[in-house]
Amino acid sequence: MTRFILTLLLILGQPVAAWSQTAQSDLPRVVLQAGMYQLDVQVAATPLQREVGLMYRQSMPTHEGMVFVFEQAQQQCFWMKNTLLPLTAAFVADDGVIVNLADMKPQTTDSHCSDKPVRFVLEMNQGWFAKRNITQGFQLKGPLFKAKNKAQ
Question: Looking at CB atoms within 10 Å, which of 2, 29, 81, 110 has the fewest?
Answer without folding.
Answer: 2
